[in-house]
Amino acid sequence: MGKMTSQPDNHGATAGGRAASHADVTILGTGITGTLLAAALARNGLSVQLLGEDHHPRIAGGEATLPCTSFLYELIAARYRLPEAALLADAGRVRTEVSHASGIHRTWGFVHHEAGHEHRAGRSLQFNVPSEHGESHFHRPDLDAWLLAAAARRGVRVRQRTRVDKAVTEDGFVRLALESGGELRTGLVIDTQGPDSAVARAIGAERVSTRATRTYGFHAVGVQPYERLAAPRPGSHPWSQGTLTHVFDGGWLQVGHFRNAEGTPPPTVPAVVTLSLDAAHHPAPAGHGTQELWREVLRHAERHPAIAAQLAGAQPLTGWIEQDPHWRASHTVGDRMLLLDRAALGGDPLLGRDLYASAQLVLVAAGDILAGARDGDFSPGRFRYLERLQHGMADRHDALVAAALTASGSFDLWSALARVWLLGTMFDALSLKRSAKELAAGGSEAALAGLRADPATGACHQSIPEYRDLLDFTLALCRAAAEGDQSPRRAADRILLRLRHDRIVPPIYGFGDPDDLEYVLSLQGRLRTLRWVRGQALPSVRRLVRPYGLRGGGKDLGHDE
């Protein structure tokens, strides 16, 4: 493998005039993780091949960004001099420059249902996304195709409909045997495509499953915007301008609309519909065709009148099933081989998990790969941090989904769990914003140190230790409720009590007030929070929040304006 060159952007050339079948790095998978990583590596001087088993445009899961996701895209752009990544953090530019079909993501809505009951406003929550970027609901067929073209412009050599049948490490390179009969050589191969691949077989990785949910996904037309059936919370955005999660005992159904920036979209605009069911209590359907899977969705929807009404006129355009979405590879590294993202772990698409995990992995992996290229070292030890991080991500998300399944039968417990999650997203965004500011100000060492946190937490960035304690406390109470050691209502009461008294919880929202069902931040809320930061907040929170002030740079604490 050649050392990293000093010139960015290969524009298709190979180091030392090597044949086009050779590359410093070969990435399997043309989804957002593989393509963004390929572009970052090529921008910084490596010769990169990108192989995809299918072709674009195609349907892919993972559409909703959070403020923490957008800050990660900004960090990728700054650290690797890749402005294409920064564009992903700007919802307006995504819609005008990448995909008119993409939408905005202004609100997370949760509506709890009981069989036979109509919508009840008192059993709904709305968290209006605090963002200075404006968050996106990506139309992934357009976005992934745009990213692929951007990577090609950076010099990445793209081959679609190409499947690797065998990967073998030889003297100083990896030989990739193609199903078509050809052969490629590379200094490092990274698989981002999915489980049970040639690379996974080569490193002896086993698939370890934790069967929590079974997931059905669709793009469908005719899905009614929910605000036509039930009014949103009084000060909130329309339900259709974000992800709406219908929660019922044993699962949830998520709905997200495209082309929703100009108000309530017409039913002719496609939407994403994702059903997640407790796999232990809901057997898999006999068939896997789109219509067969859609009938499974309607079968569960008909028990809940409001969900049934939202889907009454809907027709699926395409569908897919994740029989076993909760799994991780037993190990993810080998000599000159790496499993990443969908090749290393899977998880329910609950609460924007997909893009948040993807962006973290691109940020970390690009740095480790470039350092390995510089040192001529792609040994397993180079990527142990990534392995531990991905295992931490799987552990944390599995625990969150298990807690959500327990809470799905109780609005009180779901509401308490959702509030703890919301608080975590705020701290995540502030931590990443601090790293972005440090990097922009030239403090690269401090910024990069803050982006290599304890991987067991399931995040690459720093968090507040006291928040991790709160989350662990919450998850433990959900486990106790699942095991029958206490009632869901009692578990919820204990979580809310801690939220009312814990000194890491800002008065930005009534986190501990069960009757406060809507997070919309006002100027008064900001003022209360600043007074609290100066007086009552723990030092760890004060250090994180105080530098941003009421307005300057701290807009991520409030509504996008």
From TrEMBL:
<dbReference type="GO" id="GO:0016491">
    <property type="term" value="F:oxidoreductase activity"/>
</dbReference>
<comment type="similarity">
    <text>Belongs to the flavin-dependent halogenase family. Bacterial tryptophan halogenase subfamily.</text>
</comment>
<keyword id="KW-0560">Oxidoreductase</keyword>
<protein>
    <submittedName>
        <fullName>FADH2 O2-dependent halogenase</fullName>
    </submittedName>
</protein>
<dbReference type="InterPro" id="IPR050816">
    <property type="entry name" value="Flavin-dep_Halogenase_NPB"/>
</dbReference>
<dbReference type="InterPro" id="IPR036188">
    <property type="entry name" value="FAD/NAD-bd_sf"/>
</dbReference>
